[in-house]
Design goal:
By secondary structure, the protein is an alpha/beta fold. It has 2 domains: 59 residues, Orthogonal Bundle (DNA polymerase, domain 1); 279 residues, Alpha-Beta Barrel (TIM Barrel). The protein has 12 helices and 14 strands. The strands form 3 sheets. The chain has a 10-stranded mixed β-sheet with strand order 3-4-5-6-9-10-11-12-13-14, sandwiched between helices. A two-stranded parallel sheet has the order 1-2. Helix 10 packs parallel to helix 11. The longest helix is centred in the last third of the chain and has 15 residues. It is globular, with a radius of gyration of 21 Å. It starts with a strand and ends with a helix.
């Protein structure tokens, strides 16, 4: 049975045309599925009973089963582990910070890039998500969140640029007037540095925000924790960032995961300022959230010194609080703990 959330407008139009239904049925169904969050076709009371039964026979509106949910008593961060129709599992997270509510969503099951500090990287790549599965994460969390999301970030499991077409189709659904009608400026696509994806996003003039995970300002250090840096070296990555800005005039966010004793020195901070100086940007400094003792988080004093060294430049710098650290909310952790329990 097909997932209705994964259909394009054109596919829905063709479906209704084949049934001899008027074209406006597409709008009715999309509004019910996305804006009203209907989970069963019987809820579409603006459609005839016969059409509702036909839709229920041909499609499903939900494919996820919630396997686990864990919430932080400290900051309310809530992490979900979903099982999809084929039995594969993915994670999604709701992050509360003042008035801001961020939905962090996955784009792949696992990840092929193998970043050493990331639990998802240890899974390897299992498969890409389709647009419907990406969007369903938002619909499922919208039911459970205290407030509607203010931001949606593709920073969960997977490398979005390696599933480019489905990620962009999902973002288009999320922001479409007949979809969720979410602000395009509040959707961020993150990448570990896939240069062809960055350039394609620029050339296609996609309206979404771009975030690049740097995590080290020196090429050799970056290679140690992010193997993809060997294929896409820092100088070429920074040239791609400049290309993106020239084409779009949109400020980039550089993510920098701070690891004690590895990339948190003043020399690292100065080099970070140096390599990003030609790109109008915002820098997010993120204390590492890892169970691996090889990747300890920096002390508060060290974090503030690093922040001050970067802040002395002209950049907008944000230190992202370690949301959900007490519930292991970083990417892949809930999946890993679930797999360990299952193996016992």
């Amino acid at each position: 049975m097909r997932n209705l959330l994964n259909l394009t407008n054109e596919q829905l139009q063709a479906y209704f045309q084949e049934l001899g239904e008027p074209g406006y049925r597409v709008k009715q169904v999309l509004q019910g599925a996305f804006q009203k969050g209907y989970e069963r076709f019987e809820q579409f009371t603006n459609l005839s009973k016969k059409l509702r039964e036909q839709l229920a026979q041909d499609f499903t509106l939900r494919t996820f089963k919630e396997l686990e949910r864990i919430s932080s008593p400290l900051d309310g961060t809530t992490k979900f582990l979903w099982q999809m129709a084929d039995g594969r599992k993915i994670e999604s997270v709701i992050i509360y910070e003042g008035k801001r509510v961020t939905f962090c969503i996955s784009s792949q099951v696992g990840c092929a890039l193998g970043c050493t500090f990331c639990a998802t990287g240890k899974m390897g790549w299992l498969r890409d998500l389709n647009a419907g599965e990406i969007v369903e994460q938002v619909l499922q969390m919208s039911k459970e969140a205290r407030r509607p999301p203010t931001n949606i970030v593709f920073m969960g499991m997977g490398e979005p640029m390696l599933n480019y077409d489905e990620v962009m189709r999902a973002a288009d659904i999320l922001s479409d007037n007949e979809g969720l009608n979410f602000s395009r400026r509040k959707i961020t696509i993150s990448t570990s540095g896939i240069i062809p994806g960055i350039k394609r996003m620029a050339d296609e003039e996609r309206p979404y925000r771009l975030a690049i995970s740097l995590n080290a300002a020196f090429q050799k250090k970056r290679e140690q924790i992010m193997p993809i840096a060997q294929k896409y070296p820092l100088p070429e990555l920074m040239e791609a960032a400049q290309y993106y800005y020239r084409k779009t005039r949109k400020r980039i966010t550089f993510e920098y995961v701070l690891i004690a004793g590895f990339n948190d020195s003043l020399q690292d901070a100065r080099e970070l300022v140096h390599i990003t100086r030609k790109v109008p940007c915002k820098i997010n400094i993120i204390p590492v959230n890892s169970q691996d003792e090889n990747f300890p988080a920096p002390s508060e004093a060290k974090l503030r010194k690093f922040e001050a060294a970067v802040q002395d430049s002209v950049y907008a710098v944000t230190v992202r609080n370690r949301k959900g650290w007490d519930i292991q909310a970083a990417c892949g952790m809930l999946y890993a703990s679930n797999e360990k329990r299952k193996a016992k």
